[in-house]
Amino acid sequence: MKREKVLSWDEYFMGLAHLSAMRSKDPSTQVGACIVNASNRVVGIGYNGLPHGCDDDKFPWDREGRTLDTKYVYVVHAELNAILNSTTSLNGCTLYVSLFPCNECAKAIVQAGIKKIVYESDKYSDTDIVKASKRILNAANVELEQMDETIKIKVEKTKNE
Question: Which residues are catalytic?
Answer without folding.
Answer: 79
